[in-house]
Amino acid sequence: MSTPALATEPIPARPPTLSTMRTPAAPDRSRIRVLVIEDDATIGRHLETGLHSNGYAPTWSRTGASGLAEAAHTPYDALLLDLGLPDMDGLDVARTLRIRCPDLLIIILTARTDDIDVIAGLDAGADDYLVKPFSLTVLLARLRAHLRRHTITPAPQPVLRLDDLMVDTTARHCSLHGEEVQLRPKEFELLVLLGRHIGEAVSRETLMAEVWDENWFGSTKTLDVTMAGLRHRLASAAEASDRPCRVPRITTLRGHGYRLESRS
């Protein structure tokens, strides 16, 4: 892989000083382990330096195999994953670690920009993606935002009934006539947020702030891709059911956001 890294803040010839890499008033994150799987020496070195300077405990692996081996014997909180690895496709790494480590935060770092590549990465188990070249400060902001949400313990909430869907927000379980509907974490959170406001218009800004983070620093394309995945999974579950069923409709409101509509 030969793609250079961080464009809006280009990688300097020498590692940045701590003053340029450190975010203001960064809390102690020394117990937050971050695995970096990246074969490019320049990118890997600066990710390792930047993470360490901001209080994280990074480990850098240059191949998919070494990264998988590292994750097998050390528990990690987050993974920064390149797709263009020399020994295997990064998507296979994401799929494997999503199964092994269901709670692992996975952020893909990729030069692949087509929608189909983004969808493939998210379907492989990634929580987010960042297109190269990228800004280190944006990457760190996204990492902080995701980790905040990962560490928050949600208060118990009632079960939502959305037509024939049952959504247990405490158990994070969605079912249709008793059969589980497999949803990715962000898809589930979108469904819950829309379900709590069924019949109401919910803006893109609200969805991004509540499901991702109020300090989100990226394109809202992530929202569109995740919403498309949610629609597809709900439709597939309805088609696969051996009983007549109704699932709510997700309507796109151009220039505003989305609305969940009951079919009853």
TrEMBL record:
**DNA-binding: is it a keyword of this entry?**
yes
Q: Which processes are annotated in GO (biological process)?
A: regulation of DNA-templated transcription
Enumerate the residue ranges of region (Disordered): 1-25
Membrane-spanning ranges: none
Q: What sections of the sequence does the record tag as coiled-coil?
A: none
Which residue numbers delimit the Response regulatory domain? 33-147
OmpR/PhoB-type domain: from which residue to which, for each copy? 157-262
Q: What is the name listed in the Swiss-Prot or TrEMBL entry for this protein?
A: DNA-binding response regulator
> What organism, scientifically named, is this protein from?
Streptomyces alanosinicus
